[in-house]
Amino acid sequence: xxxxxxxxxxxxxxxxxxxxxxxxxxxxxxxxxxxxxxxxxxxxxxxxxxxxxxxxxxxxxxxxxxxxxxxxxxxxxxxxxxxxxxxxxxxxxxxxxxxxxxxxxxxxxxxxxxxxxxxxxxxxxxxxxxxxxxxxxxxxxxxxxxxxxxxxxxxxxxxxxxxxxxxxxxxxxxxxxxxxxxxxxxxxxxxxx
Length: 193
Ligand SMILES: [Zn+2]
Description:
The protein is an alpha+beta fold. It contains 8 helices and 4 strands. It has one domain (4-185).
């Protein structure tokens, strides 16, 4: 798997253990004990509306999702997800927007493709701190450390065993890419990169 650059980038950011605890408490409070983390249910239980629409026209695919806080004109906060993307991408978008909702609670947020900015150029390393926190939140939510740790304790995997990594990604309903980065970040496997 050729993800050296992403792994290096991810290693620049130390996961925030406070944020990890915050997410753990959230999961416990909502009785989420095993993967896949039910993001749709969490959105509902946290009092937000979830809207899925396919949006592909004029670079519409660039838009993964957005969050609109309740400013009085909406009955509740809204998380909108672009249904044109694969279900695992949608789950990630929902987790991401939920992060904005819980950590930020202010202006409208447009979630664009992680890999490009408006001009389609690779994103710079200096992403704003809130965005970094939100990305961390999404990883914590979809791939909680305690769940991964217990899964890997029960059945350790070799990161070079593609099938094993794939089946773990399927269990968490996350992309292979996201899982590999997370396993590396948590130092749960020694990566072959
Ligand atoms: Zn964001």
